[in-house]
Amino acid sequence: MTKTDGILWFRKNLRIHDNPALLQASESSERLLCVFIYDEVIHYQQHGVESLGPYRAEFLWNSLLDLKQSLQALGNDLVILKGNASTVLKELVERTGARTVYAPYECGYCERLQDDVITQFCDLKLIGGATLLDINDLPTDPATLPNSYIIFRRLIEKNWEADIGTVSACCKTPTQLPAAPVIPRLESITENPVADSRPVPDKAVLNFKGGEHAGLQRLNDFIWEGTALESYKQTRNQSLGSDYSSKLSPWIANGSLSARFLYHEIRRYEAERLTNESTHWMVCELLWRDYYHFSSIKHGADLFLHDGAQGPNCSKRPVNKTNKAKAQSWCEAKTGQSFIDAHMTELLETGYMSNRGRQCVSAYFVRTLGLDWRLGASWFEHFLLDFEPCNNYGNWNFQAGIGHDSKNLRNFDVEVEAKRYDPNGEYQAYWLDSFK
At residue 227, what are phi and psi to the nearest 5 degrees? Predict the structure, then answer.
């Protein structure tokens, strides 16, 4: 095979384990430039809210530093740049003479718009690795994906029973990388470009530190160092504590941890220890993530519009900001409803919130306060450590009643939710000094 100079664009998948794009680029390139770009998809403003908030910015920066060290140990390096992705990559292609840009395939609408522009000036090779299933292993084309997660999951599980479309084995990790080309006056960013970045405080349920090594350590702790996985289905609706859920989503979101690697670790746990409803449910959660990713290909920009994936004509009406005071009280954890305010306080102070909490506060935002769901989704995007566009907006579509499998939330009662999921008020007391 004739090797040529290549560029590996780490748009996500910030890891060296189970990274098909890294493997293919390393095997096909004479010299290889590894680059990450703070671009318009990562950092922009929407509805008056900055997309990249303080906790995710810090988590991302630490993930990049960790990746940089890993690449250096393999004989290469990571160049961190800032700017419009297509403009930066075009300049790098011209300066290096590289024929090919390698990158992980992304399902998001904005990411696919980027791809269309980049393919005009280079050979862009998009390679899987961001999802559990490869897009080519789906039982249907994304354009005809079922409008129900339950149907999707049953199709996948039926195929698995027939040994069809199974999850691929993790790819090998390179032991050596091609050297990077020498490019005069190409200076990598050496300081976090987001000025208000800040680490998660000690009060958080977990020490969320960005990077592949931290993600793998958390996976090992949750699955192998205790019995948390064994009881996951029973504890997943809790909100207080470190092990009621895996807390792996921030590392999976930016690709510091491979979803496929997690899947195979769950299967290994089932083979070596036990199989039960909890281990099955963890796999189902990974399939939920896949479903939202592939569904975003089907719906494109509609996912972000007022009427969402299922609404009539996916209305492009502008965001309704007439109830600004209500929206602000929710954002600032000052609604006066302690169960809601406790969860929003945790989000404000740590960048994290339980799955149950997210369902409750989003239902409250839409159903009780009667606000435009897109404002809530933007606030989540700003603060959540584990933000992913497909998951975030897919879930908000769901809660607003305009997405797939949407349930009737007209009878949502926050007091009932509080009594059910925090009966003794421990969670509220932990986050609200005023709670008694």
Answer: -120, 20
